[in-house]
Amino acid sequence: MKTVRVVAAVILDGAKIFATARGYGPFKGLWEFPGGKQEAGETPQQALLREIKEELDIDIEVGELLATVEYDYPDFHLSMACFWCKIAGGELRLKEAQAARWLTKDELYAVPWLPADLTLIAELAKKLPEQKTATP
């Protein structure tokens, strides 16, 4: 079975993470962490910087590796390196996704995730801070 190596950005803003809905292909409409394929000669971090600039028109700061997800789809094996990230500059613009949301810990299961990304959600739920509510 062919292995596809990809990188994904778990973009954190306070107690929220950024997710996008695919705008193309067989998984159109399902939600994922933005990112894409790692090209030959690129480190995972370099691939992530490039992919996020291409997909969202922003610059990010790539943090530590959160997890590497190994998942078997019917036609290929996915190896997805997922990194904590934060926005370093630019205005978010969806160039490939059909929708996007900032999700709190309580909203993580509110969207239909791609199967490989879904395997990361339980781990994220443990690591995301609780959203603080404003006090009057």
Description of the molecule:
Helix content is 19%, strand content 40%. It has helices at 44-56, 115-127; strands spanning 3-13, 16-21, 31-32, 35-37, 59-72, 77-89, 99-104. The chain starts with a strand and ends in a 9-residue tail after the last helix.
Set down the secondary structure blueprint.
Elements: E1 3-13, E2 16-21, E3 31-32, E4 35-37, H1 44-56, E5 59-72, E6 77-89, E7 99-104, H2 115-127
Parallel strand pairs: 1-6
Antiparallel strand pairs: 1-2, 1-4, 2-3, 2-7, 5-6
Give the low-confidence spans. none
Number of helical segments?
2
Q: Order of SSEs, N→C?
A: EEEEHEEEH
**In percent, how helical is the residue content?**
10-25%
- The pLDDT mean sits at 92
- The total of beta strands comes to 7
Our estimate of the beta-strand percent is 35-45%
- What is the CATH fold-level name? Nucleoside Triphosphate Pyrophosphohydrolase
